[in-house]
Structure formats: C-alpha cells, structure tokens
Design goal:
By secondary structure, this protein is mainly beta. Helix content is 12%, strand content 41%. α1 links the parallel β4 and β5. α1 crosses α2 (165-177). The longest helix is centred in the N-terminal third of the chain and has 15 residues, at 53-67. The chain is elongated. The relative contact order is 0.12. The model is unreliable at 10-18 (pLDDT under 50). It binds zinc ion (ZN). Zinc ion binds next to β1 and α2.
C-alpha cells in the first residue's frame, strides 16, 4: 500500500502536544468557520465513481459538525481560490477560506510577499493557516490545497490506488480546526492517509480540547473526585491518594496542596473505564484517573487536609478538600510482630472491609479496618 503524505503547514506554528491529539497552537475565536470551496478537478465536477467533489467535501464538513462542537459552513455561492490575492488571475477576497484542486501552493511570507511552491512528492493535500501579528493563537484564515496532479476518487473502505477525496478533506478540515498530525493514536489526523475514513475518538477529543464538546448547557465544565483518603478517614503507614477528573475543555493544571503547602501537579492518565461509562459526554474520560502512594507515616499524628484544584484552559476552576487523621501506634508500627496478638480479637467482614477489633500490640488495644480496593 502506498503511503501518501498529508502535509500541514501552519504559519506561526506553536506546537503543543497534549494527551494524544496534537494541537497546532491556533484556534478560531468562535467554534465556527465558513469555507468557500471551488472543487473542480481538471474541468470535472464529478469523481470517476460519479460523486461530486463538492458533495464529498460537504459530507466531510458535516461529519466534523455532527461529532464536535465546531460548525463548518460551506458557501459555494462565493467560491474562493486558495491562491486569491497571490496569483493575479484570482482577485483578492479578503480573509475568505478557500479550498481547491491546485498544481501549486500559494502563500505569503512574513512580509506579505507572494510565495509559490510545488507539492512535495506524494503530498495529497495541504492546509495553510494564517494568524495576525500580535495574536498568533487566533486563526484568521485557512486555505486548503488538494494536489490536482494526484489520482483522486471518492469511496469508503480500504485505501485504493486513487486517493479518497472525502477522507483527505476530513483530514484537512481537522487542520482548519487547529489540529496537527497525530502519530501515536489511531486518528484521521495521522500524517499518512490509510484505511480510516471516519473521525476517530482521538480526533474528536482534540476538537473538544479546542472548542469544548457537544454536551448540552448546564453540564459542569469540570467534575473532580478524590476517592482516597475518604473525608474524615484515618490513615497510617503507606496508603494511596486517588481519584479522577474529567473536563470539557483541556485541563491546564491539577494542583495538589497538603496542609496549605503546594505539593505538585498530578497526572491524570490512569485508565478509568467506570468513569468513561458514567461521563461519556466528556472528552477522553477513559484516561481520567490519578493515583499515587503516600507515606502517611511521615506526617505528624492528628488532623491534616488535602486540597486539589483543577483549572481548565478556559479559566474554569474546581477544588476538592479532604480532611483526614493520621494515627500512629504508640511504639512504632509493628516493630516486633511477636508483640502482636489477635487471640482475643473479634473478626468481622462486610463488603470490601475486614474489621479486627481488639488486636493487642505492646500493651495497647487496637481496632483495625482492612479495606480492599481496586485501581482499575
Ligand atoms: Zn495533514
């Protein structure tokens, strides 16, 4: 199978890898853009299979519209060539977003001078993204170039000799949104065209990171839970701190404080299929878990407090506090197991807990609660 490169070019490129999808560093000010395509390939409006290029382009835009919060509008009444204002035969059209089959790539350098280049070997499509000086994070115009020297058709299913225009359009529209190439996860935004012809979860998660997800109003932007320690729980020795977080927008920070002192940022990459089932409307809910082991024995006996603060890229913030107590054995933690006796202890079990009531250690009586938990 041939590998054909789908090239992204982004002026003022600020690469920012995040989770798995990759963002270019620019986005539209609103979750919307109007494209003005003029899709005629060597005089033909239809592909060899009989479908019109413009219809396949509309379907690709519609797929992004139906699965993400972004809204593409396709305006064929005022078509725009991507070389408008650069090649003299296409008059300047302002900031219109063009899309066309072309033999050359038109752009301007940083001083506004025209630059005409050729497609690289095997390059099917290319999207130019423009921003204004002083605001390089806001997209102001995009132009999509489809290489008219390649062989094209329109079809579903495995890749054939001729490139499928619809899936390449789906990919280029991802660049228009602000997504860059994804090399790790299965994605339409992969750098090479392949057998995929629909958006994948990673593509949708990337769009959600930029523009939020398609959830109804009233859904909280962040949901955050600390499961361990429990509120007013008792801790000793080494135990876990764990919980999960989901957010509509990309999470900027997840900061942990202990007794008012900043401890660091938590990664939330752990697999949580239960959270994914409960919060399917959030992007990437499967990898929402965080957990680490903590030596509670290193804290002084008595009351302590965790504070966990989640902030997203849109400025939303949510925090959870958990109060817990650290207890210690009077003479260290079971230094000598010959001094432990459960002879007169009562054992009982309920749910995921075993209670040992009346364990003797070094002259003291203890009640132990053993709780099993899974970190799935
Ligand atoms: Zn690409």
């Amino acid at each position: 199978m041939r590998k054909t490169l789908l090239l992204a070019v982004c002026l003022f490129l600020l690469s920012s890898a995040s989770r798995s999808y990759v963002l270019m560093g620019t986005r539209w000010p609103e979750a919307a853009a109007t494209i003005h395509p003029m899709l005629v390939l060597l005089g033909e409006e239809r592909s060899p299979s009989g479908d019109r290029w413009i219809d396949a382009f509309r379907e690709a835009a519609q797929e992004w519209n139906s699965k993400t919060a972004f809204d593409f509008e396709i305006d064929t009444a005022r078509p725009s060539h991507p070389c408008a204002g650069i090649l003299s035969k296409y008059p300047e059209d302002g900031y219109r977003n063009g899309a066309a089959f072309t033999s050359v790539i038109c752009t301007t350098d940083a001083w506004g001078n025209p630059e005409i280049t050729s497609f690289g070997a095997g390059t099917l499509g290319l999207t130019m993204t423009y921003s204004e000086f002083g605001d390089t994070r806001t997209t102001t115009e995009t132009d999509i170039f489809f290489n008219e020297r390649e062989e094209w058709d329109i079809y579903d299913g495995p890749e054939r000799r001729a490139a499928d225009f619809r899936r390449v359009a789906l990919h280029e529209l991802g660049h228009v949104l602000g997504l860059d190439h994804e090399r790790r996860e299965t994605a339409i935004m992969a750098p090479y065209v392949g057998d995929l012809y629909h958006l994948q979860q990673d593509d949708i998660a990337g769009a959600a990171a930029l523009y939020g997800s398609t959830v109804p109003d009233g859904v909280p932007p962040i949901v955050l839970a600390v499961e361990e320690p429990a509120e007013n729980g008792i801790k000793s020795g080494i135990s876990t701190f764990r919980g999960w977080v989901v957010s509509l927008h990309e999470l900027a920070s997840l900061s942990l404080y202990l007794d008012g002192k900043y401890k660091g940022e938590l990664q939330h990459e752990a697999s949580r299929k239960d959270v994914a089932r409960a919060y399917p409307e959030y992007p990437d809910p499967e990898r929402s878990g965080f957990a680490f082991a903590f030596a509670y024995g290193g804290l002084s006996a008595g009351s302590h407090r965790y504070r966990l603060v989640a902030r997203d890229a849109m400025g939303n913030e949510l925090e959870r506090t958990v109060n817990f107590r650290v207890v210690r054995f009077a003479t260290g933690y079971l230094k000598d197991d010959s001094r432990v006796s459960v002879d007169s202890a009562r054992l009982s079990g309920e749910g995921n807990e075993i209670l040992i009531d009346g364990m003797e250690h070094d002259g003291g009586l203890y009640r132990l609660r053993l709780r099993s938990m899974s970190l799935t």
